[in-house]
Design a protein that fits this description.
Elements (H helix, E strand, L loop, with lengths): L7 E4 L4 E4 L14 E4 L5 E4 L23 E5 L4 E6 L5 E7 L5 E2 L8 E3 L3 E7 L1 E2 L7 E7 L8 E5 L6 E6 L15 E5 L5 E3 L4 E7 L5 E2 L10 E5 L5 E5 L13 E2 L4 E4 L4 E2 L4 E9 L4 E3 L2 E3 L9 E3 L7
The structure holds zinc ion (ZN).
Length: 310
């Protein structure tokens, strides 16, 4: 029986870590839980009021799903479950930080793929003796893919003609694995954003309002993420508040209206941020793409397709 359970969640570039520890020598009790952030930006939950401090936002990788999208459940019998609430698969990596006196039946170090909207039994893990037991996990959406470059000849994610304001390896903000091969297209708020390729809406958000030049506001960006048959994903971001016309789990065709462009989150002006991403086993990375043979370059004008009919 584990008496004291702490949930410690760290939001880092690519990972969400959930840690729990149990002390065998104390008796079970329920307690109030407080949230605090330490000097390293680690968000923790504790039942000790003295450690509770105001929450400070932590920068995360661009438009990763909410940290609650995957959750861990541990029963009194020692059964460990993981639940994926998303409409696409996730790849979870578990880590056992304390192995002394721990009985597990499986090799928990291997990545675990969890199907959409599914809870899976992982293992029965029990603890003997005194001390503590710690698990951590992180997840990334999708399943591992080796695709280095998307050759699928994507269509432009809009109709009309707009200028690329930042392209691959753009110095302003395209400098992380998840967005190194992304493009920004300046366009007025309210421009229809279209699917570049057929796929399924894996995740989306259109509830955020406002924008800033603070990178911490990356997490407050409205976006649609599509999962495609080859395992790659396309990302459409900074969308207008409340403009989404598709929902998670919905299949969309290339050219189908997804939402309207906006200026939400970490953004200095109205534009669309577009990227193709894949799961490399532990995280999302962006991959080079072209649009009907055109490699995005800063300053060039892109002509969208005329297929869109409002
Ligand atoms: Zn961008």
């Amino acid at each position: 029986m584990f008496a004291a359970i702490f949930f410690i969640r760290k939001i880092s570039l690519v990972s969400i870590i959930l840690l729990w520890l149990g002390l065998l020598t104390t008796t079970a009790e329920t307690a109030s839980v407080y949230k605090y952030v330490d000097e390293n930006g680690v968000v923790s939950y504790t039942d000790q009021y003295a450690r509770a401090q105001p929450f400070n936002p932590v920068e995360i990788e661009i438009w990763e799903p909410d940290q609650d999208a995957v959750s861990l459940r541990y029963t009194k019998m020692g059964n460990l479950y993981l639940y994926n609430s998303l409409y696409g698969p996730v790849t979870v990596t578990l880590k056992m930080n304390q192995k002394d006196n721990v009985i597990a039946h499986k090799d928990l170090s291997k990545p675990i793929i969890i199907a959409p909207r599914t809870e899976v039994f992982i293992d029965q893990v029990n603890y003997l003796g005194q001390g503590k037991l710690e698990f951590s996990y992180h997840f990334s959406v999708g399943t591992p893919s080796d695709i280095q470059e998307d050759h699928s000849n994507l269509r432009a994610p809009f109709a009309g003609s707009f200028q690329i304001s930042q392209a691959f390896n753009g110095g302003y903000s395209h400098n992380l694995p998840g967005n190194r091969y992304a493009m920004d297209i300046a366009m007025p708020v309210g421009t229809p954003i279209l699917a570049s390729k057929s796929g399924t809406v894996l995740d989306m958000r259109d509830s955020y309002d406002g924008h800033s030049k603070n990178p911490a506001d990356r997490a407050k960006t409205n976006y649609v993420r599509l999962l495609h048959a080859d395992g790659t994903m396309t990302l459409y971001a900074h969308l207008k508040t409340g403009s989404g016309v598709v929902g998670p789990g919905q299949h969309v065709k290339a050219g189908q209206l997804l939402a309207l462009s906006g200026n939400t989150g970490y953004s200095t002006g109205p534009h669309l941020h577009f990227a193709v991403q894949r799961n490399d086993g532990t995280r999302l990375i962006s991959i080079p793409f072209n649009l009907k043979g055109i490699t995005p370059k800063k300053g060039i004008w892109l002509d969208g397709q005329s297929a869109y009919v409002p």
